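INFO  loader      accepted 1 record
INFO  loader      residues=362
INFO  predictor   begin
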Amino acid sequence: MKNLYYLLAIAILVIVACQPDEPDPIVDPAVYDATPYSLEYGNLPPPTIPGDNVLTKEGVKLGRMLFFETKLSKDGSQSCSSCHRQKHGFSDSLKFSLGVEGLQGGRQAMPIFNMLWHTNEFFWDGRAHLLRDQALLPIQDPLEMNETLENVVAKLTHEQDYTDQFIRSFGDSVITSERISLALEQFMNSIVSYQSKYDKVLAGEATLTESEERGRELYFAEYNPFFPLVSGADCQHCHGGDNFENDQYMNNGLDSDLDFDDFGREKATNDPADRAKFKVPSLRNVEVTAPYMHDGRFQTLEEVIDHYNEGIQNSSTVDPAIENTRQMGLLLTEQDKKDLVNFLKTLTDQSYLSNEKYKSPF
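INFO  predictor   done
INFO  writer      dumping tokens
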């Protein structure tokens, strides 16, 4: 009987061994797909999308892959997302980000959202004319990712996932630095914040608390030193409109002429009149984008408000609207400051901070 079982087992093994191999699964070849990306922006005004880089589903997907790709850095340790983290509004919680060599950057990492509504160039000093120009500079910066574009192209060219995605996005598998920049621009342009509590209030879907409402009134009220009881914080002149910014570069009185250690916009324009002027950022999501200012000198919103209330320094290029408040300050009480901070927190968009479309695809 044992011999019979033994022979039967051998027969089964022979039969199994003789079966033809399972064919490899058929993988559909990558093909170009120009399906438009559906951009959602709520009640924000319709954006002007670059005519030579319209958003497509596959282009945005490629940009998302690249944004989280550590191969863009010299040693494979960092990606764009290393210094632009979603939970911090796609900014960095560090005062100055650390690059692959362990070196500090020179300015605080700016948040990424509503880039389509920024029409006055990019970086704190505006040295990048288009968002696609901005996208490539951190890759090459010795203080940041410290890699060459040639090396990035070579690394990605050896990855089929990328050659396939470039086919889907651009029609062929050729990878170039220009195409990398266009894809990154598409992804960053797809990141939109428009569902804060304040947006919902404007849409009639939420209401402000008493403190938030008083902070709103202070935010939008004009500064009036002659009538202190009705004088406001006058924030809207610099941080107004749907995106809570003014598309300008301004010196907001952080330092006197003798204390400048960063010439700001002047480095991009070579115009002394732009000395110590920096891009006015949006105040959307400002609750989560600390530290504040181009050099990250303030850790809290309370410190920021104290600066405008009592800490403005005189300098040759300080904005006149800021200078007008220097002598007397904004006349804000402690309760005014609390109410103003509470209103600023209504600009936080939790859906943007947790949106799956903006998370790593890996």
